Amino acid sequence: KLLARLEGRSSLKNLEPSLFAEEGSPVHGDVVEFHGPEGTGKTEMLYHLIARCIIPKSGGGLEVEVMFIDTDYHFDMLRLVTILENRLAQRTEEIIKRCLGRLFLVNCNSSTQLLLTLYSLENMFCTHPSLCLLILDSISAFYWIDRSNGGESLKLQEMNLKKCANFLEKLVREHHLALFATTQTLMQKSTNSVESFFPFKLQHETDTDYRPYLCKSWQQMVTHRIFFSKQCNSGNSKGFTVISCHLKRNHVVKRSFTVAECGVQF
Amino acid sequence: MVVLRAGLCPGLTEEMIQLLRANDIRTVVDFVSSDLEDVAQKCSLSYKVLVAVRRVLLAQFSAFPANGADLYEELKSSTAILPTGSPSLDQLLDSGLYTGEVTELMGAPGSGKTQVCLGIAGSVSLGLKQHVLFLDSTGGFTASRLYQMLRAQAEDEEEQAALQRIQVVRVFDVYEMLSALQELRDRLSQQVVSSAGPFKIVVIDSVSAVIYPLLGGKQSEGLAIMMQLARELKTLAREFSLAVVVTNQVTRDSSTGPLKPALGRSWSFVPSTRVLLESKEAAWEKATTQRVASLAKSPRQPTGIQVELDIG
Hints:
The complex is a heterodimer of chains A (266) and B (312). Chain A contains nine helices and nine strands. With 266 residues, chain A is α/β, with parallel strands linked by helices. Chain A has one domain (18-265): Rossmann fold. Chain A has a nine-stranded mixed β-sheet with strand order 3-2-4-5-1-6-7-8-9, with helices on both faces. In chain A, β7 and β8 (251-260) form a beta hairpin. The radius of gyration of chain A is 18 Å and the shape is globular. In chain B, a hairpin with a 6-residue loop joins β9 (250-252) and β10. Chain B folds into two domains: 14-61; 76-310, P-loop containing nucleotide triphosphate hydrolases (Rossmann fold, 3-Layer(aba) Sandwich). Chain B has 312 residues and is α/β, with parallel strands linked by helices. The mean pLDDT of chain B is 86. Chain B contains 13 helices and 13 strands. Chain B has helices spanning 14-22, 28-33, 36-43, 47-61, 68-78, 87-92, 113-127, 143-153, 158-164, 174-190, 207-211, 219-239, 264-268; strands spanning 66-67, 81-82, 97-98, 101-107, 131-136, 166-170, 199-205, 243-248, 250-252, 259-261, 273-279, 290-297, 306-310. Chains A and B meet through α3, α4, β3, α5 and α6 of A and α2, α4, β1, α5 and α12 of B.
């Protein structure tokens, strides 16, 4: 079992090199945040990553298993199947079903249920050594509801998400996973001049529409932050841009992609 | 926040609850996240019993993962595409309204949203002979207009039956809307097999009318209720394979900026598909029934496609 896990460890490097600022990413233990307003291609990128993972090695994929936690009820299975059909040389039902057999989906309806679900999923990670990608779409889904339930106390408001973040970190570390989570741009970027004096503000944060609002525990465990936005060229309505930042080493890279019938194309 | 109490699950006795409470473990989350060896020592309870209770509690309160292949099988048999009554709109939506999704129609007042909604209700009821739930929060639903539209398409006796299949509920605030949706949920959960055909669509005209009064004041409460409503709509769509159609207003960032949906950023993530309805430019002087529908957001098609509609 350990050998299987070690073998799985090197395979994520070819997941999608264009997404990352550094070669050799992602590695197990990485926590990647997709951030952006609606309609900027985050979900499409997730389908692209899932397809890369579940397609067998003979089809050019990584042949690993993926766990997808859907808090927004946004996941569109039919779209994923369309993408698979466009990428596989042989599109038989049999092969599609085998690919889909490597994908596990869970829906969560509240931050409490998310936390409890993470606890019960721990068992699955133990029994499935090739399950090395965990996707959470999105981690900001309960933000307003939690804020309202927590009343005046910021601590109470953030409590569930903080526990989720801490447990996610534990899962990622102990089971050698890579975690991809999406967060939605719910707030406008602050134009407050006081904030612009903040000395630790990284370069990428001033370029993009990013205003952190989730709890510190989450922000501190993110290793890569990728910003999605639409390209504003008048002729090209299908183009999107990603700005990818490796947070520890402060490397930033900007790339563009389009979305076609077969999914994301760089 | 479920509080632990005796009988919540087998093996959880009153004495256990008291011992746990003495050590600050009151809710299911507290129990599940604590170190059971530690708890076993402090409360002098059996470790094995605690582990068993934990397993049962998790099975009861957490969500269960499904396999992609199984889900695909299920979706193939339960997903339907409903006609909107207008062939050009169907084309814009890649054959029609998909069940399991929330579709948003946005437009300025007078752009034809209510008419399109009536058309959808009529088409599903008459064409597919299925039931429709129409939640009206603006008072814009007129049975006589719907009757007119049906008369134009149906044969003699059919329009009466079609009208009967459309249930209209007038709601004037978000709480009434939420309780109407709850009633729907209860009805659908209890339904075994209905002889009148499956229930597939909910039309809500409009969602901005009930949400607008909540936003702006004490910000987070209004937004929280809006997100509760959004969540309810999406889970209804998913769990019961319904198509949910909502209408929304439009705003602009500045006087020359592009039109965008009202209700703000958080709502913009909710619908899977968004269609903008506008009047045709040349129609300023005379009132026409010509409209232009453009695709603003879609999980399947490239955005920006436009079609012309006649809402007459």
